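Quick one: structure tokens for this chain, please?
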Amino acid sequence: MIEIYTITIVVIALAILMSIIRFISLEDIFTKILTTNLLGTKIVLLILLISSLSNQVDFSDIAMVYALINFISTIVILKYFENRGISK
């Protein structure tokens, strides 16, 4: 069972790395913000996997708080740039 978790953690870590590379190569600010949101979601998933692997409930609470902060900050930043009228 530990091998499955390990393989899954490695795959998610590679997906995080690909998201970072995508973030660096983008030009559009809205796509960068959404890529950052995607990166935060993958990190939440990684925290939850580590939580289930180590049998600590505290990590899942931290992951849920991080997910809420990630969601709210993405909405606020998108509203800010939408109201400013900046698309580049």
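The mean pLDDT is 88.
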